[in-house]
Amino acid sequence: MKRRPPAPLSVWRTLNLDDFLLGVPHYPEHVDESYWRRDAERMRDAGFNVVRMGEFAWHLWEPYEGKFDFDLFDRAIDILADCGIKTILCTPTATPPRWLTMNYPEVLRVDRNGRRASHGSRQHADTTSPVLREHSRRITRALAEHYRDNPHVVGWQTDNELNTTVSESYSESCALAFRNYLRHRYQTIDKLNFAWGGDFWATAYDNFDQVVLPLPMAPSYLSPGHVQDYHRFLAQATAAFQHDQVRILRETNEAWFIFHNLGNLADIDFRGEFGQDLDFIGFDIYPMLYDEFRRTGGHAATQALQLDICRSYAGNFIVPEQASGLGSQPSFTTMTPEPGEMRRMALSSVARGADGLMFFRWRPAHFGAEIYWMGLIDHDDVPRRRYAEAKQFAGDISRIKDQLLGTSVAMDVGIAGGDFDNQEAHKTYPIGLPSPMDDAALLHRHCYKAGIACGFIHPEDDLSRLKVFYIPHWVMWDQAWTPKVRAFVENGGTLIVGAMTGTRDANNHILRELAPGSALADLCGVRVEEFGRLTAKDGAGLFQRFPIDQGLFIPPNLLPSSSAGRKYSLEIGGREIEAEHLYELLETGSDVEALATWKAWFAKGRPAITSRRVGKGRVVYLATYLGEELVEALTQTVLADAGVEPLIRDLPEGVEVTLRQAEDRKLLFVLNVTDTPRQIVNLPASIDLLTGQRVDGSLELAEYGAAVLSYA
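Structure for Beta-galactosidase, as requested:
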């Protein structure tokens, strides 16, 4: 597993390793040592080449302050190595030991109600604490020095799912670090007062020592600038905490690869120092968990959405944890993958950019808060269908990895994503509107079902590989992105700009010019003279909740049971479509064409969707938000005109298709996400790498079946 220097962050970036990482998170400390060799032999027989260990073992590595004990893991690593299994170690800073929090209680987090955390179960310590950071450096340095020359340790994971349990803290150390962050950012208190709108509601500060943490509703609403800067600070603090560890590991052994495994993505700026420090990013994937909590079209579609979002941050990735069975903690239990579905979910991850995958976990725990979180081996130490599927998947990888590595995921339709400021800006002042991700999910889901190559991409990346680029209501538009976007259009691309884009500056101030901001307005040929809310279809009026990225939570008993009032619609291509969430009234230039117009009420006849030719391409402006009907209409008009077609025509319902490619090869993943067989036609002449069989136009996939078609 040789490491090369990583390329700059980009959705198109491939992994900088020469092998596919395949294995499991492993916890030898949870079982008697008599199990270890049998475990290693079974891993070898399954076709695994790596395990991940130690992320929650600080109390074992350092049983009391300054006393280190590596013996348990040394022996486990040697036994694994005897069976050809390499080890990825983790810095164990997600679970500081009890002696640390007893001796240094100031490291504990404080919640928004002023309650200091007790010890455990994880992420109980505050990453802004200088005391915690010093102990984090100590344990990282001790581990790095001990394993620096161990040939069986090939890489490191930093911490574990940073900010997943909780990202916010209101401790004294957090307040002090926040004030220092603001001093560096603004230099003078006058600049901070301007950024936060200090003349509104008498919120101005006399000096930085007066600055408080943004406690929600204490007693009323906060300045959006204040909230935005708090989350910028949390992201910077998280990156700094990780950087301490990365610097030590890099200085100790340059051959080690370093990554982090991400959970819910809170308060992490992947495009900043956090992502730049790493060789690649890992994303923990639990599709059944998404299905339970998100309800956005089924867990297969939601897994695809999550993977494509993740890839936008840094390109190809690994999956350090992929669900292998039922998942549970005391407050919830997921559904269980049916026979064949675990393998299918793993292949979906690979299809969408994973160049490494580890099934969570090797065996389930017999104690603790995850005793019903199943692994590949059952509680009675017997391998059954989950182990068999993992072994089958390992066989799949052995057949495709030589062609897979070095490929990236193709996209015809790119959705603007991966930008921390726009993610957070919506949350600071959502005004009952869908977040950019809520809106983007509608287009993504439509493309997923239709078999259109669609994903997320940052405007800083190479847009030339796309046919369509959609900006889903990014209120903060950096003018530095405009030249690249303009070049994309002038060279033949289609740009779609969503309503409300470019309406605020970096301080969360409303611009003193009509939307969508000077540079984008010049591209679009429109100005927004008025905007207002529309009731969402089957939604609420004053308050509205959204499934992906809730900006404001209103208790269900305060939500109206149904929408009321006028229905608003627009006409596009001779078809009337109900509009949702927002309307804008546009002023248009003479070279702007109306693709859709408002129907009835006072906006009747005004443009609702416009098009303007720019060079070889065109810019489409949406004076409203997406709905399912509008996405379908845009597919039939705008996307079709841009040359966007499904990867496979006449795709059956329940079949997922994804293309990974390099200059000299293409790999088309065709996956049946249902429990009934599917017949697929209109396939390219190719070889199915999983079976070695030639495919001439059609094939049948069994329930949860898969094919990986190779062609030039």
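The chain is about 30% helix and 20% strand.
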